[in-house]
Design a protein that fits this description.
Oligomer: single chain
CATH topology of the largest domain: Naphthalene 1,2-dioxygenase Alpha Subunit, Chain A, domain 1
Bound molecules: FE2/S2 (inorganic) cluster, fe (ii) ion
Number of helices: 5
CATH architecture of the largest domain: Alpha-Beta Complex
CATH class of the largest domain: Alpha Beta
Order of helices and strands: HEEEEEEEEEEEEHHEEEEEEHEH
Structural class: alpha+beta
Shape: globular
Number of strands: 19
Strand content: 25-35%
Strand order of the largest sheet: 12-18-17-16-15-14-13
Length: about 350
């Protein structure tokens, strides 16, 4: 039986043991994951400002063929935002007094007295970066719990890559992730694209906890698929890699396979960013990438319009909402996040 906490200290302990809501900034564990900050192609010849887990970052590419770099977006000299600077001679240049750094964050030039020794602490506070799957990944901690999720299809010639987009949502990362594992919303939120409110019935999904997160398998009737008309059935295997990375494998009856990669990055406690690519087993001649992109932007826009109406913070505790048979995925995901933030479960 659940008893009411007796005093403030007990209430606080209860929130830590089994929090009612998921407020990402309250849990340092979220810093120990890799997040996709942007598409690799988005880093051109200008520095870019991006916030991850409430931490403003500057990302840049010192030269066209150099790997991406990331640092805290704050100059050690007088706190100017480095993302408002520029790149010159492979160096990031601060917009305030023109100090320069290389791609490893080492101070390379202080233009007022170029021959003077560089002060200690003048270097940038770097953030770990990787480039994988056409995305730039960052990790704010020195000790990530797991690597960037695997995606063997990316290098498999049986699959083609459809690079998609970065999509910014004024909703929390858990709200967006949960939405992508929620088959019940398709008939309604997506009634103008591939859903049909008159065909809302669902089959049960099977959900299993996996070392990396969880897997949900199911089938859902849809009215169309990208660039095509005509009702069909999606057979889906959806993997959640903790905390917010989804790979949604869709098989259609004619053998076409469509893999959505949804890397969801918490911007802060109220906002998130989706970095998405798609992989398909057909060809550009079969279905132009432009059709797939247009379809997915329309679908994403429908989800965003709804998700941005939802209150924050994200509810974790079961008693905060009503749950129906179609919510198996959602309940399993909420349990997973509860176990993660309470230390009962660690992905591997
Ligand atoms: S604030 Fe950046 S060089 Fe002075
Ligand atoms: Fe959706």
């Amino acid at each position: 039986m659940r008893t009411a906490p007796q005093k403030f200290g007990d209430e606080r302990q209860e929130r830590v043991d089994r929090p009612d809501h998921l407020v990402i900034s309250e849990h340092p564990v979220f810093r120990r994951f890799w997040y996709a900050a942007c598409l690799a192609r988005s880093l051109g010849d200008e520095p870019v400002a991006l916030t991850v887990l409430g931490t403003p970052l500057v990302l840049w590419r010192p030269s066209a063929d150099a790997p991406a770099s990331a640092a805290l977006d704050r100059c050690a000299h007088r706190d100017a935002p480095l993302s408002r600077g520029w790149i010159a001679n492979c160096h990031l240049v601060c917009p305030y007094h023109g100090w320069e750094w290389d791609g490893a964050g080492r101070t390379r030039r202080i233009p007022q007295f170029p021959d003077a020794p560089h002060p200690t602490k003048s270097g940038l506070t770097m953030v770990a970066t990787r480039e994988r799957y056409g995305m730039v990944w960052v990790c704010l901690a020195d000790d990530p719990i797991v690597d960037i999720p695997p995606l063997p299809e990316y290098d498999d010639p049986a699959w083609r890559v459809v690079p998609e987009y970065e999509f910014d949502f004024a909703c929390t990362a858990p709200h967006l992730l949960e939405n992508n594992f929620d088959p019940a919303h398709i008939a309604f939120v997506h009634r103008n694209t591939f859903g049909n409110p008159d065909r809302a019935e669902l089959a049960d999904t099977t959900v299993t906890r996996e070392p990396y997160g969880l897997r949900s398998c199911g089938q859902v009737s849809v009215e169309s698929r990208p660039g095509e008309t005509g009702a069909t059935t999606r057979t889906t295997v959806s993997d959640l890699y903790a905390p917010f990375f989804a790979r949604i494998h869709i098989a259609y009856p004619d053998g076409l396979r469509h893999l959505m990669i949804k890397a969801i990055t918490p911007v802060d406690d109220e906002r998130c960013r989706l970095v998405q690519i798609v992989l398909r087993t057909d060809t550009e001649q079969d279905r132009p990438a432009a059709d797939i992109l247009a379809f997915d932007i329309a679908v994403e826009t429908e989800d965003r319009a709804l998700l941005e109406l939802l209150p924050t913070p994200f509810p974790l505790a079961r008693h905060l909402n009503a749950h129906a048979r179609a919510d198996r995925n959602s309940l399993a995901i909420r349990r997973l996040w509860t176990d993660l933030v309470t230390g009962r479960w660690v992905p591997s």
